Model the fold of this input.
Amino acid sequence: MVVDDQDLVRDGIAMILDGQPDIEVVAQAVDGADAVHKAGAILDLSVVLMDVRMPVMDGIEATRRLAGGPRVLILTTFDLDEYVYDALRAGASGFLLKRSSRDELINAVRVIAGGDALLAPPVTRRLIDRFADTRLDPAVAASLEVLTAREREVLVLVAKGNSNAEVAEELHLTEHTVKTHVSRMLAKLGLRDRVQAVILAYDAGLVTAGR
Done:
């Protein structure tokens, strides 16, 4: 589903995605409320491309209401949308810049549909520096006790915006081993993806903005 209050943007994205053999646009919505309503009637909805700033209901509230359902990919101009971090907290699986290329759009949908998070390392760092809530939550910090020392190291590096390859280089591990550590870490903490891991690391005080 493509959700955007601008007809040309929404129709353009839908046309690009519908032209792919493995992607089908099953619905379009003009605002968050429309998206929530339509999503409830679509059984096999996998991904929602969600704009942030829309009338009636914005993308953040709509994402929150869709939690537990289809995976949400936030569409943002980034420099102007100051609520992207809130959208990630609300359950979004990542975000895509509106100035992204056609190929990046298609790849983003495939990545999200495949169960991964879409958070490019350079953009992650910018996002964290600007929007991270650094207040320590003792309960969240205590939940990290289930992790091994290595898994905590991996979590910290992921939270700082490093890719698996960068984590592997930093810890002198293979990329496959890092991927295994990330998967085990997410499973132990009951997290869906790397986005939630980044948020948890900040809430737990493992890392703070600017450090």
